[in-house]
Amino acid sequence: MKRKLPKPIQQFLLEVAGISKYFWRFWKEVFVPPYEMNEITRQAYSVGFKSMPLVSVTAFIMGLVIVIQSRPALIEFGAGSYIPSMSALSIIREVGPLITALVCAGNIGSSISAELGSMKVTEQIDSMEVSGTNPFKFLAVSRIIACTIMIPVIVIYADVISLFGSYAGANIKGEISFNLFFAQVFERLSFNDVSPAFIKSFFFGFSIGLIGCYKGFTSTKGTEGVGKAANSSVVISLFLVILLDMVAVQVASIFNII
Amino acid sequence: MNSPEGSTIIRVEHLIKSFDENVVLNDFNVSLEKGKNLVILGRSGSGKSVLLKCIMGLEKPDSGKVEVFGKNIPELNQKNLDAIRKKIGFLFQGSALYDSMTVKENLEFPMRQEINKNSRNEIDERIKKALKSVGLPGTENMMPTELSGGMKKRIGLARAIIRNPEIILYDEPTAGLDPVTGKEISHLIVEIQNQYNTSAIIITHDISCAKIAANKIVVLENGICKKEGTYDEMLKSDDKAVKQFFE
């Protein structure tokens, strides 16, 4: 007697298959002309510009909180002078890329899936297809490329803002000059601290773009479906970002760059 | 090369299309002659829009033939399908204007591939001509959100005619409009037919639109062609399915 898989497992496997299909479709179409450079630029601007206010505030608070929380413990062990380097390492290696990617997954991922979902519901995607334009290439490929390029840029921006937050945090209860703080930050940082974090943020960007587009293109059941697509896009993106972060840490550890 | 007057340019034969258990089109047959407007009347959910999507290659039929200019649409590869689509304009039920683009960019969109080849001036001229044809000159810089329902339909129609198509497919052109605007759109369909020498399939349940625009009417019920004829022939019909529309 054949036994059916439980429904949640079936749905999970279908989702994985759907995402894999979109993943391969992206690589199949990304190198084939025409290249939608105008749309990629427009999307890159939109992705970067949309995220700036939220990322700025989050990054500044993140840097501030890291210093405020860790300062008492470091001072207790007589390591107060390590505050700048400790905060820089934790921000640039891990907290900066991860928190920025999570913020962008919520902000950009949901916005992409809601936009594409509503385009699908209002037949705008069909309209593109009948006018001889490949909607996947024009809408999805351009957005995925824009996210892949812009998330690392946003991560660098967030790291810088976060370091300013740390400097502010260090000056709330103590006193350290701007020059001394950043001299200590850059003294401790090496290429091996920056490069894995920078490289993994490309993967974060790609996964946020891919999931946003996949959920938007596959949304169904009218406006209710658009809301659900945006919601599940955020959930899956967050999960994927954390999963990729874990893989990145393992890979970096294998190559001894941690 | 354009098809000769009176020749069959769309031929749908034994078309079957279902979604899961629901058979939407069940052995449906219809044809469109060059220069004619064919109105397909049917109740909501009777498969009218699915028929148009099969003709445009947006839906794949389960079986049957959908021939446009002698080519069977389901068998075409993407390149040949795009070549056929260039000769067809499509007015969507909700107009389907791109929200993030101005009216001008919406009209330019179907000609994106040609913009490099043609001069900017020629494209601008075509946009102006199309907007003038639908009675909305000077709206190039407006956004779709600034347009009323009737204006959106007109801009959608301008986008449908921008590439000088031989066929225009109208999906519920008067849906959601007041009767006066609905009549204006119906008359516009006839004007476009005369001005651009187009043939059209018009999907509707609006009898006044059918009266104004149709050369031939087909009543679609339960996925099959229930009755076919002119408006006057339909008026005289004793068929219950036909009568419910014309009473």
Topology:
The complex is a heterodimer of chains A (258) and B (247).
Chain A: H1 7-29, H2 37-76, H3 83-121, H4 124-130, H5 135-173, H6 178-188, H7 191-217, H8 222-254
Helix pairs in contact in A: 2-3, 2-5, 3-5, 3-6, 3-7, 3-8, 5-7, 7-8
Chain B: E1 8-19, E2 22-33, E3 37-42, H1 48-56, E4 63-68, E5 71-72, H2 78-85, E6 88-91, H3 103-108, H4 120-133, H5 149-161, E7 167-171, H6 179-196, E8 199-204, H7 207-213, E9 216-221, E10 224-229, H8 231-236, H9 240-246
Parallel strand pairs in B: 3-8, 3-9, 6-7, 7-8
Antiparallel strand pairs in B: 1-2, 1-4, 4-5, 9-10
Describe the model:
- The complex is a heterodimer of chains A (258) and B (247).
- With 258 residues, chain A is mainly α.
- Chain A contains eight helices and no strands.
- Chain A has helices spanning 7-29, 37-76, 83-121, 124-130, 135-173, 178-188, 191-217, 222-254.
- In chain A, helix 2 runs antiparallel to helix 3 (83-121), helix 3 packs parallel to helix 7 and helix 7 packs antiparallel against helix 8.
- Chain B has a domain at 8-95 and 165-246: Rossmann fold, CATH 3.40.50.
- In chain B, helix 5 packs parallel to helix 6.
- A six-stranded mixed sheet of chain B has the order 6-7-8-3-9-10, sandwiched between helices. A four-stranded antiparallel sheet of chain B has the order 2-1-4-5, covered by helices on one side.
- Chain B has 247 residues and is of the alpha/beta class.
- The interface between A and B is medium-sized, with 14 and 20 residues.
Query: Which strands sit side by side, in order, in the main sheet of chain B?
Result: 6-7-8-3-9-10
**Low-pLDDT segments, ≥5 res of chain A:** none
Structural class of chain B: alpha/beta
- What is the approximate shape of chain A? elongated
Number of helices of chain A: 8
How many structurally independent domains of chain A?
1
Query: How would you sum up the major sheet of chain A?
Result: none
Strand content of chain B: 25-35%
Coarse structural class of chain A? mainly alpha
Which range best describes the helical content of chain A: under 10%, 10-25%, 25-40%, 40-55%, 55-70% or over 70%? over 70%
Q: SSE order of chain B, as H and E?
A: EEEHEEHEHHHEHEHEEHH
Mean pLDDT of chain A: 91
Write the CATH homologous superfamily of the domain at 8-95 and 165-246 in chain B. Answer: P-loop containing nucleotide triphosphate hydrolases
Largest sheet of chain B: 6 strands, mixed
The helix-strand sequence of chain A is: HHHHHHHH
Identify the most extensive interface between protein chains: A-B, 14 and 20 residues
**What value does the average pLDDT of chain B take?**
89
Give the oligomeric state: heterodimer
- Using the coordinates shown, work out and report the CATH topology of the domain at 8-95 and 165-246 in chain B: Rossmann fold
In CATH, the architecture of the domain at 8-95 and 165-246 in chain B is: 3-Layer(aba) Sandwich
